[in-house]
Amino acid sequence: MAKSTCVAYLLWLTLGVFGAHHFYLGRDRQAFLWFVTFGGVLYGWFSDITRIPGYVDDANHDPEYLAELARKFKKYKKPPVSLTRCTAQLLLGISWGYTAMAAVPEDPQLMLRWLVYIVTPVATALAVHTVGNVGRCRGALRWPLLAAFATVPLYFWSLQVVHYTALASIVAFEYGAKEWRRTPHPPRSACSRFGTLVVCVLVFYSMWASYFYFNAAVIDRHGEKTMFRDAVKNFFKSQLWKRMKEEIVRLFELTRTQGWSRAWNSFLESVDPSGRYAALEVLGLNKTATQEDITARYRELTKTQHPDRFTDPGDKAKAEEAFMEINLAYDKLSKMRNKRRRSNRVSREERVEL
Question: What is the pLDDT of residues 39-67, one digit of tens each?
């Protein structure tokens, strides 16, 4: 079935950062790369604006496109070096290498750190190979893989040398493996292609899952280290989560009994986007407080909490902080009141004109 330029652009505009237009055009490797890099950190996605027509012609085996491609095959024995492609190989190779390294458990009891010397060069070479096999270029994995493993001795000196592994893989791919892809990929069903894409995405994100489960940690202000997996468990036992869960249940029940509109208004009150309720809380007032209540409470607090009433340095510092909060809260409420007054005056004037 012929591919449509309009459909390709529509997919690019809506789901392009996840590679939907590349999957539609049969460019599965590029679709995968866009999915795991958010459209090549948006740069690749934006660049596709001018490249999509060529991609469509390639997918449709357009005679003019194939004739131009044949001239390139004749002119160049192998694909010329592309700065854009090499840069992508370098950045992705470094990224995947360090991600694989971080995914290896650091716990000495598991005794798995030796895997760093295997998974890091493999991940780096796979990144170089994947980028190198996009479009009409192709190359075997063995060359960048061999070059990557040749740099492993450097890891015994320092693990922060993945960029050397990536550079070695790129050179090996460019000068030992790269060649023209003269025939398109053999046709496969959309389900088979999609299944392969899903498996590749899951394998990629499994490295991040391994990192967060085995190695990621949260350090508090006292310098105490807590493993991320334990921090997540503790969060679901915390008072914050209990309050959040209660609020979610309350909003769900409110939606079920009184509709979305009432639930949405209640949600906005809970979030307090304007800061009104937080300001009222500083003044010690509830949500139904009138302007007279606000003014009276402000005058009372500025007298009792004025820093000049305190002689102890510690109490004076606390009073200054509280006094500042009181003034900020009152200023916010006053500005909101003035804004409502102006809005009401404009509304009245508009009604009079009508």
Answer: 999 999 999 999 999 999 999 999 999 99
